[in-house]
Amino acid sequence: MASSTKKLKVQDSKCRREFQTWWAEKYGMINKGDKAVCVLCSGTVVCRTSSVKRHFETNQKSFCEKSEPEQTELIASAIKDRNKQSMSMFKYVSKNCHTSAASYSDANAIARHGTPFQEGEFLKEAWLTCTPSLFDDFDNKGKIIQHIKEVPLSRNTMKDRILKLAENVTDQQKNDINSAPFISLCLDESIDITKLARLAIFARYCVGNIIKEELIAITLLLTTTKGTDICTAVRNSLAEKEIDLKKIVSVTTDGAPNMVGKKKNGFISLFKTDVGHSILECHCIIHQQALCAKSGLTSLDNVITLVTKIVNLISSQALKKRKFDVCWMKSIRCIMV
Questions:
Q1: pLDDT-derived band at 93, boundaries 50, 70, 90
Q2: Are 25 and 75 in contact (CB under 8 A)?
Q3: 177 near 183, Cβ under 8 Å?
Q4: How many separate helices (H) and strands (E) can be counted in the chain?
């Protein structure tokens, strides 16, 4: 008997904790989750009739002094204003989402073409200049112009958008690489125009049925370019991308001594120790072609030397260059006829 009474009390307390619709008309309360929110002061109380009544009588004393019909009218007006504000905020957020999406699209185009960040403002000015003529026969031309004016395209906005896009691309790349069962690396170390040694790391992997080849990182080798330095740079770059070394099955290099040294201090030997299993070593086909061109075209040295002299003779003197252009155009016309 005691347990059944306890169950009834629990059920009764749960019912009392549920929001009652009549609180809105009498006390100006609306439901928000498991709380009751006052539309008059935005205060929150638990969903209990005694708590709702106490809040109204304590915080809304001016309303309590009015007559009951007047209270009902004022509360209904406050609830209506509250709903109108919510709809206005929803419309603003929806509109802001569209303008933000357009802003990201512009930032993507600016980043792809490598143009300055302030080009976003120029784009908006160009749109606003051509829009009146372009959409002249549209009934909602004014609305279109207003939407273009609301798109945020300032220099700082473009910078933030591009940084977020780059971060998103990096996250996608990281997820794709980590989901791939096997990974192949390609390394190229060279000196840039500032005399600094840079190492480019590429990865080839499968995403479903699609084979992707992406740049992982371009790292700077501050001092020497030994096999140990390259191995440390590669290991750190892969750790930043959270790439599992055990997934690497092959490495392609340019065949330089610091990459494939005969001794055990070359990059390949050191990297095999870090990976923990044997990997396939490949020689870059571009460097193979360069080596073949050096050793396999010696029979054409006389022809290449003669052609080089003729080109240099024509290009070095302006008069001969103009005469050559005239003769070239005459020959083209004869061929066309």
A1: very low
A2: yes
A3: yes
A4: 14, 8
